[in-house]
TrEMBL record:
<protein>
    <recommendedName>
        <fullName>Succinate-semialdehyde dehydrogenase</fullName>
        <ecNumber>1.2.1.16</ecNumber>
    </recommendedName>
</protein>
<dbReference type="GO" id="GO:0004777">
    <property type="term" value="F:succinate-semialdehyde dehydrogenase (NAD+) activity"/>
</dbReference>
<dbReference type="Pfam" id="PF00171">
    <property type="entry name" value="Aldedh"/>
</dbReference>
<comment type="similarity">
    <text>Belongs to the aldehyde dehydrogenase family.</text>
</comment>
<feature type="domain" description="Aldehyde dehydrogenase">
    <location>
        <begin position="54"/>
        <end position="514"/>
    </location>
</feature>
<dbReference type="GO" id="GO:0009450">
    <property type="term" value="P:gamma-aminobutyric acid catabolic process"/>
</dbReference>
<dbReference type="InterPro" id="IPR050740">
    <property type="entry name" value="Aldehyde_DH_Superfamily"/>
</dbReference>
<dbReference type="InterPro" id="IPR016161">
    <property type="entry name" value="Ald_DH/histidinol_DH"/>
</dbReference>
<comment type="pathway">
    <text>Amino-acid degradation; 4-aminobutanoate degradation.</text>
</comment>
<dbReference type="InterPro" id="IPR016163">
    <property type="entry name" value="Ald_DH_C"/>
</dbReference>
<dbReference type="InterPro" id="IPR010102">
    <property type="entry name" value="Succ_semiAld_DH"/>
</dbReference>
<dbReference type="InterPro" id="IPR016162">
    <property type="entry name" value="Ald_DH_N"/>
</dbReference>
<keyword id="KW-0560">Oxidoreductase</keyword>
<dbReference type="GO" id="GO:0005737">
    <property type="term" value="C:cytoplasm"/>
</dbReference>
<dbReference type="InterPro" id="IPR015590">
    <property type="entry name" value="Aldehyde_DH_dom"/>
</dbReference>
Amino acid sequence: MRLLHRSPRLTLAGRIHATQNHLNLSLVRAASFASLGLREPSLVYNQGLIGGKWVDAKSGATISVFNPATREELGTIPEMGIEETKDAIDAAGEAFVTWSKTTAKHRHDILMKFYSLMKEHENDLARIMTLENGKTLAEAKGENAYSASFIEWFAEEAVRTYGEHIPSPISNSRNVVIKQPVGVVSILTPWNFPSAMITRKLGAALAAGCTTVIKPPPETPFSALALAELGKRAGVPDGVINIVTTQKNVNDVAKEMCENNSVKKVTFTGSTAVAKLLYKMAASTIKKVSIEAGGNTPFIVFDDADIDQAVEGAILCKFRGTGQTCICANRIYVQSNVYAEFASRLTERVAAFKVGNGLEAGITHGPLIHERAVEKVARHVNDAVQKGAQILIGGSRIDRPGTFFAPTVLSDVPSGTLINDEETFGPVAALTKFETEEEVIKLANDTKAGLAGYFYSRDVGRVWRVAEALEVGMVGSNTVALSQAVIPFGGIKESGIGREGGHGIEEYMNTKFIAFGGL
Ligand code: SIN
């Protein structure tokens, strides 16, 4: 029976279940994943998950998913719509009745099992991620470890959702505060971290006793579906994790996820433009909202910095995921005394990158996610060059199959460029010279975004001053290592609301005050 539910994934049973037309396509899909070294190809599902059942779109429509390193089709997923979204929300609502009543210890144990399964299957999960996102296998393994750490962290948080006793000013009364799960949570995630942006939300939701409807991005759905399968294997009951896949119907699906009365919280990571739309929709029923939107991260190198550390930091944080993270440095400000040295050392390091298919040994940086991403990066580079910037290395797309852009260093990027205004989301280090601390703080804060900021300096006074002056939610002072499950991750200004990781389980719980009177 179990196989029947799973039949249409990329297994022999799935291929038998398919229509004749579908059959040929399934064989191709199976070949794309199976021939690329998955130990357990059965982790690859090409259906959504609703109420514990793997399902197609009611219309039968599908979406193709491509490998950005080759532009070959990897497989298809269902093009779901409002009906399936309502079904998923209903399933989550039903499951909430029992899941919310389980003990925190029970949820802890299931999450720890989930964590262990993620570690056990790290090679396959990483390969799936590399195939659909393009990041290198090493990066994908790193993301899997990061992703699993959210499940582990929130397993540990589940058993510490303490309430409070507040001494009452009334003699025969007692004041108590308890925490309760909010209910059904809608989770909308981006393609740049196909796994970690899900577990950061899902771990907290499940630990709190909430149930979920997840809409993964159409570019990287297979990581989400594999995670859901591991959740099932860990003992997460049917209906607690639901996955709705969509591309063309995304507006309708997102609207339902944000406006449906049964949903009590919406959590989103992605662009600021989309965040604004979802925030408005969620306002219609005053839902709890957590948003991690775009950044425009400043990276500042003062002339008293350890330049080795600063170059290393810039390499790590600018080019992580080929520049496709919300906390990648977007604008790099270097004090004039050390500008030339920093620029030449950074360029030397970038020249040593090996760009290519992330599955191949020795590749340090993969492709961009799709053609639109390449076009945007090219537009930002061309705009900067037209306004006076110089290209020290890179500067154009790489002429090969796939969506590759050459790692680029731009020098003397003036203000008023697109790079100053928008997140580039690509492998472009944009350097600008500055003279004084006051000047650079003004430049760094001159943006609507406020997610992260980094700076390098060995002056203790300056370290405090700059850390306090940067208008962001997260600061890296002489480090770029912000990505940890234990910290409050999130931004200010137009970069978001709420914090994830750290004590983020609070965002999935209601605070209830109870006065016990007449004692
Ligand atoms: C993001 O790019 O949105 C998240 C980055 C991270 O968690 O490190």
